[in-house]
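This part of the workshop introduces the protein records we will be handling. A record pairs a protein's sequence with a compact description of its fold. Comparing a sequence with its tokens is the quickest way to learn the format. To make this concrete, we reproduce a full record directly below:
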Amino acid sequence: MELDISLLFTSGWGSPERIRASGRAYELGQRMGWSNPSMLRALRGRADLLAARGAYEEAVRVARELLAAGERAEAPLYVASAHATLAICATMRGDYSQAWEHAAQALDLALNPPHALTADEMRTLRPHADLAAIAVLIVRGYLDQARRQMERITSEEDWITPEVTCFVHSTVALFYAACHDDRRAQQQAAKGLALKGNLELPEVQARSEAVLGWAEVRAGQLRQGMKRLTAALTVQPRQGTLTLRFVQLVLLVEAYLAAGDTRAAQNIVEAAMAQVEDSGAHNHDAQLWRLRGDVLLHGVSAPGDDVVREAEACFQRALEIARQQGALLYELRAATSLARLWARGGKKSEAREALAGVYATFTEGWDSPDLVEAAELLSTLV
């Protein structure tokens, strides 16, 4: 298991090297049974690897095997690890309700363990339990809770190795970017790179570099930012990791739009939608449909009726998916895009009704960029 944890950071979350090491450990565990901690760690590593590579059916099967084995062995930490992996799989499939059921159980056990955790136990369980919960909180619109969890996990550095610390900061940076919180995203990405030093952590480094490139583009440093972002996004596919891939593609589309490269943005959207069908990772379906509509309208001062109808259909599809999945943040973004389109066409009353209904559903996060943007738009729809 120590080898698996090391490979997770040095070779990548879904790397071929982890496949080989995990496969050998899993075969040994099947022969010996899952009754001792070493074997439970191997089972946990296998479930985590399969989830990272997008093999969700197999990951769920192995995670449920871990859940049962952990319960038999009265090992609550491995029960929590199983719930964390099940949460990741449900998130990637776009089932945010089920994802939260598992993430909440994993996080509760992580924060309230039955005994003081050793460093090894902490690395076995966390930070995956924390990050799985944060991802779901963001999408479900609990933005203040997500921010508090991110602040907590990035301040708890006394129990983790430098590799885990960098992993945490780079992932939290990506989560802040997904919330359009440019300042905090840059801070976490820069801190992750600074702490990395001379460590060889290609996937973790690329994640931080991608966030910094995205932020640079949004700040007007177009050439430098796009070079940095596109270079960083070539790393993860080589590592075989699918987890977090689509949120990075969403950031890439946003960057291309900010840079005014509509054709490139459209190509990424279409390629990402094709990857969704191949992978079964539906957690960003609503985002991609919204972005498809945004791309159609970007830079067009007077879109024709056909373009308007097509963009409107994209936003409506994004709204439908977000509601089905319980993705309140994505629903708000789709409603904002649709309301802006309708307002341009003189349909202010319909625009206000569409956006106000979603905005009123939120119970927190009023100072977050998406809610501020929605509130500003609503103030013009009078």
